[in-house]
What does this fold into?
Amino acid sequence: MGRKGNRQHMKRLAAPRLWPVHRKKAVWAVKPSPGPHPMGECLPLQVIIRDILDYAKTGKEAKKIITDGKIIVDGRVRKDRRFPVGLMDVIEIPDLEELYRVLPKYRKGLVLQPIEAEEKNFKLCKVIGKTTIKGGKTQFNLYDGRNLVLVEGRDYSEEEEESETEIISFNDIKVNDVLKISIPNQKFEEYIKLEEGVIGLIVGGKNAGRFGVIKDITKGLMRSLNLITIETETEPIMTPLDFVFVVGKETPLIKLPDW
It folds into this structure.
């Protein structure tokens, strides 16, 4: 079977515009595997290693690096060259002591933001769904495909017996709030509510990558009409609620790209 019938490839001209690939240098590009991020909102590992980091000249070389287990995503070794890496994912290359978080940059699409070692052990996950299940448990559906089950009334701090941390009610956590979880063990650490005064990052639309303090939340008649006003360093920006990702209360919890 030729490449025209190979579902692992797609024509470069049809690749998402955020991919940093030369459209006319070759005909084919690797297609991301089905996974936690939509095709238009992710980067296959091969594209990251060859086209962004420039650690390989060919797809074959990039595949060798990946299948040798030299790339870690969210704390787990990934050997699939087509594995989709997307928003907020943490990439680690132990041999080179390099750490990155995937974030939007203004007018640049998704980029690899270098981070410090203390950031590699957690990620921020936006809540897109919430369900109460048997046993007094709450299941949170997160934007990257994870399902996190938490027990009401349990202290999730690091040292439960000696902790003075206030036990929160998970009823307070709503859709569009953000959970901070450890990786790879997915332990709940804290949450940030989507409300006025917190730091919001725009992750979609023409202003993706810009961030600032949320000044106003306007509810519309339909979900698609909900708007948020963010005060950036230069100007206020109004954007749909679905494009906003909370990243901190008074200051960002993660290193954000300069724009």
